[in-house]
Amino acid sequence: MDDRDLVTVAAFAGVAEAELAKERLELEGVLAFVVGAQISGVMPFLTSATGGVRVQVKPEDAQKAREILG
């Protein structure tokens, strides 16, 4: 799966929050990915400029993911 096929359902300033959101989604049966964690770790000052640490899911799971994280 190409990351262009994914939809961002949440963005966070840090990796820990994004990972927690990913775990919550996966507990509910939604496959999720954390994007931008590497930049946050190497160059944290660029995190906000790149959209934060994002949690992404397949388009068909986006609505459910938003409800879970809501």
What does this structure look like?
The chain has one domain (3-69). The chain has 3 helices and 3 strands, in the order E-H-E-H-E-H. The chain has helices spanning 15-27, 37-42, 62-69; strands spanning 7-12, 32-35, 53-57. Strands 1-3-2 form a 3-stranded antiparallel beta sheet. It is globular and about 25 Å long. The chain starts with 6 loop residues before the first strand and ends with a helix.
User: What's the overall average pLDDT, rounded?
Assistant: 84
Distance between the termini: 26 Å
Strand residue percentage: 15-25%
Instruction: Give the helices and strands as they follow along the chain.
Output: EHEHEH
Low-confidence sequence ranges: none
Give the arrangement of secondary structure elements.
Elements: E1 7-12, H1 15-27, E2 32-35, H2 37-42, E3 53-57, H3 62-69
Antiparallel strand pairs: 1-3, 2-3
Give a summary of the structure in a few sentences.
The protein has 70 residues and is of the alpha+beta class. 39% of the residues lie in helices and 21% in strands.
